Amino acid sequence: MSEYLSILIFILIGxxxxxxxxxxxxxxxxxxxxxAKNLNYECAEEPVGNSWFQFNNRxxxxxxxxxxFDVEVIFLFPWAVAFGQLGLFALVEMVIFILILFFGIFYxxxxxxxxxx
Amino acid sequence: MLEMVLITLIKVLVVVVAVLTGCAxxxxxxxxxxxxxxxxxxxxxxxxxxxxxxxxxxxxxxxxEDIVPSNVERITFALAPMIAFIPALLSFAVIPFSSDFxxxxxxxxxxxxxxxxxxxxxxxxxxxxxxxxxxxxxxxGSKYSLLGGLRATAQMISYEVAYGLSIIGVILIANTLSMxxxxxxxxxxxxxxxxxxxxxxxxxITAAIAETNRAPFDLPEAExxxxxxxxxxxxxxxxxxxxxxxxxxxxxxxxxxxxxxFGGWNGPFLPPVLWFVIKVVAFMFCYIWxxxxxxxxxxxxxxxxxxxxxxxxxxxxxxVTAAWVML
Lengths: 117, 327
Fold this sequence. Notes:
The complex is a heterodimer of chains A (117) and B (327).
Chain A: H1 2-28, H2 58-86, H3 88-110
Helix pairs in contact in A: 2-3
Chain B: H1 2-37, H2 53-63, H3 74-90, E1 101-103, E2 106-108, H4 118-139, H5 143-166, H6 168-174, H7 179-184, H8 198-211, H9 223-226, H10 236-261, H11 272-293, H12 299-326
Antiparallel strand pairs in B: 1-2
Helix pairs in contact in B: 1-2, 1-10, 1-11, 2-10, 3-4, 3-10, 4-5, 5-8, 5-12, 6-12, 8-10, 8-12, 10-11
């Protein structure tokens, strides 16, 4: 339990240091905003249009693939830790599991999910 | 109990200050080494050999005006730098810096917190950093920021999978997730895991460079296309939080690599903590060397490489290692 307590202290002090530097900077820096300064950067031109625009839905597909495979990678961790005691059976089981993963990535590849544009 | 808390408090302060100083001097080292590699001399005016340069940069950033564009989402805009920085710092909580030692009659462990799931903890907290980047890109209200943030997110999650898989081989050999035990089994140079997992190490370093958005995988901040990527609209201390966060991430990757593959603080003659620092600095030097050597990839090349090369190879490495450990 005390191990997690020290991590909690670490989080608190880390956050504290960040907040402290922000506060310090707020106290000593100049503050002089005006309209032209507060515009978004767009190569020294007046910004055109809204910046919350449509973007390529490839990003979404990659996020889905990531969720699928990353969750499966998590299953490998407990297996790897206990591998020494599990023996041949665990090896065969995991080889089958990894082959399924291989098949999955191959399927996504053939379906064109991994193709960028 | 009070003594325990006090010792922890002092250790936390020491670690935080050490990491922040490490980040500051990583920037110095990067500029100096990069300068030498490009036949320049790098920063040399502030102090002897330019050693005070990081301090001067920090002071300058604190005194800078904080410009917040009028169309940002204020709350997320303010939170994003912290979300990018704090997880990067947090991974140092479980890294063993030194062996145990006695000080003023107290037995002090060489790490902040000996979690039995050390590596998983590091992977969990470093993955949180991506939220800071995507929120920064989205809330800035600038086209460059949004594109940079999206790119960074897609890249980081793509390489996250290979990054996680690349260390499964190490865990298969060590049969533990605790950082302390990982160091303990690597005593003596012949027992370093790098000799048993050379390929796993290559996968680790490649995925880690992409994970920390460094050259040649620094697409999120491709200056020629995206100005500065997700932190285009940030200035002053908020900008420096992203900057320190990036270096803290690099240091974390170097420290984890040292602990997993190069025996952590193990080493002859010199004190353990010095060995740890030497190995981490060597790691950082490789980072800078790679940056000076390789040109930037194209985005489709980057995604293809992550999913079609790195991920299958990491799976293959896991299988081969498992079979090898079995024999």
